[in-house]
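TASK: fixed-backbone design
INPUT:
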């Protein structure tokens, strides 16, 4: 059992390191202004992998949030609401004072949702299942 957990952690670490290496390669390709066919295929493929990773993360967070005990879920939802409303208010104030004629309501409301959800539920992606106690552990 312990061997499986170590393997899972190392696979996740390897995956994130590969994503980071791919990002660095993509940034070098963009910086050098490489416009070859293979560079474009690589960029599109990299963004597809990022999109699939994001989709996977959202599904994992939803599945684990459903399994949370109610007090923990309630605390996270309260954190989300407070963080979201704070970001909306701060964003509205900065936008109103810096560009009063161009208040874009969709930008004002959608960006804080992503930030607040990320701050409130990000750790659920990496949460581990607790092993049930056996008779020997009690």
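OUTPUT:
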């Amino acid at each position: 059992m312990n061997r499986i957990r170590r393997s899972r952690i190392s696979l996740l670490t390897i995956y994130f390191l590969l994503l980071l290496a791919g990002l660095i390669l993509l940034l070098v390709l963009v910086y050098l202004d490489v416009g070859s066919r293979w560079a474009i295929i690589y960029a599109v493929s990299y963004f597809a992998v990022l999109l699939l990773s994001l989709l996977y993360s959202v599904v994992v967070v939803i599945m684990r949030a459903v399994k949370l005990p109610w007090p923990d879920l309630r605390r996270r939802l309260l954190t989300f609401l407070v963080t979201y409303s704070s970001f909306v208010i701060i964003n509205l104030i900065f936008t109103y004072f810096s560009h009063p004629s161009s208040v874009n309501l969709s930008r004002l409301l959608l960006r804080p949702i992503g930030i607040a959800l990320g701050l409130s539920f990000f750790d659920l992606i990496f949460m581990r299942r607790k092993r049930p106690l056996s008779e020997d552990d009690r």
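COMMENT: Residues 2-31 form the longest helix (30 residues).
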